[in-house]
Amino acid sequence: MRTESIRERFGLAMLELGRRYPRVVVVTGDLMYPTQVHHFAQAYPDRFYDVGIAEQNMIGVAAGMATCGKIPFVCSYANFTALRACEQIRNDICYTNLNVKIAGLSSGLTYGVGGPTHQSYEDLATMRSMANMTVVVPADANAAEAAVFAAYEHDGPVFLRLGRGPEPVVYDRDASFTIGRACQLREGQDVSIIANGPMVYEALSAAEHLEKAGIDCRVYDMHTLKPLDLDSLRSAGLETNLIVTVEEHYIIGGLGSAVLEGLNELGVSTPVMRIGIPDLFPIIGPTNELRAHYGLCADNIVRNVKAALSSI
Amino acid sequence: MKGDWQLGKLDLDGLSQAARLIRIEVCRMFGRVGQGHFGGALSCADIVAALYFHELRLRPEEPDWPERDRFIMSKGHGAPSHYIALGEKGFFPKEWWEQYEKLGAALNTHPNMLKIPGVDFSAGSLGHGLSVGVGMALAARQDKRSYRTYVLLGDGECNEGSVWEAAMCAAHYHLDNLVAIVDRNYLMVDGCTEQVMGLEPLEQKWNAFGWCTEVIDGHDLEAILNAFDNARKHAAGPYAIIANTVKGKGVSFMEGRREWHGNEITPEELTQALRELEGTA
Lengths: 312, 281
Known about the structure:
The complex is a heterodimer. By secondary structure, chain A is α/β, with parallel strands linked by helices. Chain A is 39% helix and 21% strand. Chain B is of the alpha/beta class.
């Protein structure tokens, strides 16, 4: 299992983005090193703006720059953007439909020992509730790089939810990334596992285990939470008997909820099981151990799929 | 009350007429719907007149002209006065004033940049505008453009911490192309600012945050224009103008009254207000 650091690749992608596209500017709030945009800052000091630990101002500044033809990438943490500056994102970027991209790193449990104040379990629920917002959750470092460029090409607000450290590689370098189009990574007739972010790897791993138990799983990387790929969802619902969603986010309001809403909209009533962080503030610990503790891992997906199938 | 306001031509009488026109038309516009944020629209009418009929470099026929001076009505509920200035300058047909607050209308209680030519940023929730202005000023510097950015804030709005984040940032970046104007009318929804959440010493606060700060009579057009001149000459960083004003200025029964922050108005009150503003009371 090869791993690559999400933030390292993000930082290098931003550097290349800055090289290619002169209209790109970076705005951060004292997090250029943790988000690795210090490369961009060093290469393009005239297009780099650190506003210090002031996230509401950070968003407003980006919005103002966007009205002047810049394409700002706000680089910070998922919770400090989506939650601390939530109203600014809503009023200054979404209501105004400005071309600002928000890269929220260190999302989910990826800073395990940081504890709840430095984690995000509500960011996807909050961001997808906003009109005009596009929400993207890349699965690995290669997808993160592709997502940066896809976000640039997209006209309008984007929330790019990213992790932190090394995550297993799922995609090849130069794999294509289309906002709004889920990637089906595995064929299967019995169960659809729909995941995003680092849970995509866990989903693939679970599918392999389940195959040995005679359970045939397809796996979707549903990286775009909003707009949700309803075509893929329809296929999953009509062609398999159970949908399992897996996300490093509360089971309230994120991928699982979006899938339930989508199925309802499609008139498809396939059973859905949501795997995610339960409705509590997690304990602390190293990220991999935390994920295992809360069932955000292949073993738990396998357990739950077997249990669910036995009761259908 | 018709006239052609020539950009750049200093004419204090003309500006005074423009301010009066703003007051009259904003009361008429509120009167059509029976309610409005009279207090704050009237307190900033002279500032808006000075900006739109003298100070700002604009092209009404090209609202997105990249070199235009920017203006943000950060105290969004003051936008109705802005609408009168914009309509008078030809950014949109004056007939739009009659559609104010109607279903789907462009002109509303709080400004929407997507619907109104000449509005540089949407506003309403207080405390956002100065940060946006900082962004515009930074973009100007990056692009080596000479446009200036003006942000009009309420004094109650200065309770918001985000205002001070923006203030700190503007000073840090020495944004000499950014001007903050505080409509210091000493009133907010719940009463006098100093009783609800004291702002004083406000001038010292702006100074301490690194802004060259000037306190003026916000109804003295000459003082307003001089302050804009001083701001333009101040090359070390951003400039704050604390404009002492009277909430509801120009209408005797509204002046200094908390209730007229946002209030319903009877036809009789409207008639009285217009008589006073037109000078026929």
